[in-house]
From TrEMBL:
Residues 8-197 form the Cytidylate kinase domain. InterPro entries: Cytidylate_kin (IPR003136), Cytidylate_kinase_dom (IPR011994), P-loop_NTPase (IPR027417). GO terms for cellular component: cytoplasm. Its EC number is 2.7.4.25. The keyword Transferase applies. Belongs to the cytidylate kinase family. Type 1 subfamily. This is Cytidylate kinase. It comes from Phyllobacterium leguminum.
Length: 216
C-alpha cells in the first residue's frame, strides 16, 4: 500500500512571492520543497550552455528527460536571461511531459511536500489537499524584484522589469499546454498589500485547515 502523502500546491505569476511562501511553509512544516521553475530554467540553461537552439522540441525534451532534481543550482539559474529562455522552452509539450513526470514523482514519494510553479494545482498535483494561487499587482511585483536586485548589488530599471514580467506572464498564461491559471479549488492570495509575514500567516491558516481535514 502507498504511504500517505500531503502536498501543498502553490502557483502564481512571476515574482508574486510564491517561492518565498513555499520556502517558509516547507521550513515551518518540515516538508520537502521543489521550486519547479528551476526545472524549466535548468533545461533552458543546458541548451544555452551548449549553444543549442531554444526552439527544438526534441532536443529540449532530451535535456528535460535527463534532468536530475537533486542538482538544481538556484544561484546559477537565477538570471533574467535564463528565466526568459525558460518560459520559451516551457511552451513545449514534450518538455512539460518529462518535467511533470519528475515533479509528480517528487510529490508522490515524499511524505510532506511543497511544490511551487505555474501548473501545480491544475496539472502536476490536481489532487493536492491544499492549493494556493499567489498574486500581486504587476507594479508591486516589479517593485519587489527591483528591490531584490538592488539589494544584491545589481543594477536594474523598474520600467524594464515591469515590461519583462508582463511579457513572461502573457507567455505563461497564453500558452496552449498547461497555461498559468488558478485551479478551480485554489485559494486566492493577493499579497499586493501584505508583507511577507502577513502572507505567510494567511497561507499557514489555510494549510492548517487542510492538514486537520486530512487527519480527521
Ligand atoms: N508579501 C511580500 N511583500 C514584500 N515582498 C515580498 C513579498 N513576497 C515576496 N516578496 C519579495 O518579492 C521578491 C519575489 O519573490 P519570490 O522570488 O518569492 O517570487 P516568485 O513568485 O517565486 O518568483 P519567480 O516566479 O520569478 O520565481 C523577493 O525579493 C521576495 O523577498
Ligand atoms: N510549473 C512551472 C514552473 C515554471 N514554468 C516556466 O518556467 C519559467 C521560469 O519560472 P520561475 O518560477 O523560475 O520564474 C516561467 O516563466 C514559466 O514559463 C512553468 O511553465 N511551469
Amino acid at each position: 500500500m502507498m504511504a500517505k502523502t500531503f502536498t501543498i500546491a502553490i502557483d502564481g505569476p512571476a515574482a508574486s512571492g510564491k517561492g518565498t511562501l513555499a520556502r517558509r511553509l516547507a521550513a515551518h512544516y518540515g516538508f520537502h520543497h521543489l521550486d519547479t521553475g528551476l526545472t524549466y530554467r535548468a533545461v533552458a540553461k543546458a541548451l544555452i550552455d551548449r549553444g543549442l537552439p531554444l526552439d527544438n522540441e526534441a532536443i529540449a525534451a532530451e535535456m528535460a528527460q535527463n534532468l536530475d532534481l537533486k542538482h538544481l543550482d538556484r544561484k546559477a539559474l537565477a538570471t533574467h536571461d535564463v528565466g526568459e529562455a525558460a518560459s520559451k522552452v516551457a511552451i513545449m509539450p514534450a518538455v512539460r511531459r518529462a518535467l511533470v513526470a519528475a515533479q509528480r514523482a517528487f510529490a508522490q514519494t515524499l511524505p510532506g511536500t511543497v511544490l511551487d510553479g505555474r501548473d501545480i494545482g491544475t496539472v502536476v498535483c490536481p489532487d493536492a489537499p491544499v492549493k494556493l494561487y499567489v498574486t500581486a499587482s504587476a507594479q508591486a511585483r516589479a517593485k519587489r524584484r527591483h528591490a531584490e536586485i538592488l539589494a544584491g548589488d545589481g543594477e536594474a530599471d523598474l520600467a524594464a522589469i515591469l515590461a519583462d514580467l508582463e511579457r513572461r506572464d502573457a507567455r505563461d498564461m497564453g500558452r496552449t499546454d498547461s497555461p498559468l491559471k488558478p485551479a478551480d479549488d485554489a485559494h486566492l492570495l493577493d499579497t499586493t498589500e501584505m508583507d511577507i509575514e502577513t502572507a505567510f500567516l494567511a497561507a499557514k491558516r489555510l494549510v492548517d485547515e487542510a492538514l486537520a481535514k486530512s487527519q480527521a
